[in-house]
Amino acid sequence: MVNAATVRGLAARLAKAEELVASGAVFPVAGLAGYAVVRNGSGDSMYLVRFDAGHEHCTCPDYQQRQKSAGQPCKHILSAQLSAGDSSPQPPASSAAP
Fold first, then answer.
1. In a 10 Å sphere around its CB, with 0-12 CB exposed, 13-18 middle and 19+ buried, how is residue 78 labelled?
2. Counting Cβ atoms within 10 Å, is residue 26 exposed (0-12), middle (13-18) or buried (19+)?
3. Which of 14, 12, 93 lies closest to 51 in space, CA to CA?
């Protein structure tokens, strides 16, 4: 079940993703459709992102520790989707049954 705290968290994550795109922090990987390298907000780390629908993955700690199991995208996945022209980013496909 989605609650207000979850929605607030997703809205904040989307706003941060939009900031990453606006700052030029998303770099498509040449020759690999659906992949990008995304610089974090402070500029001291880069993360490899796969943003193909249903196959989303990110090497950032947030995705590895929380988002992967919760089925929610990190800001890096959202920023890669936005940068690629997807104006309506989708959460990663969940392997758990509803």
1. buried
2. buried
3. 93
86 to 9, 12, 33, 44, 89: CA distances (angstroms) = 20, 18, 14, 26, 6
Tell me how long the chain is.
98
pLDDT tens track, the chain, 98 positions:
678 988 898 899 999 999 999 999 999 999 999 999 999 988 899 999 999 888 899 999 999 887 767 778 899 999 999 999 865 545 545 444 44
pTM of the shown model? 0.81
26/37 Cα distance (integer angstroms): 6
In whole angstroms, give the CA distance from residue 37 to residue 25.
8
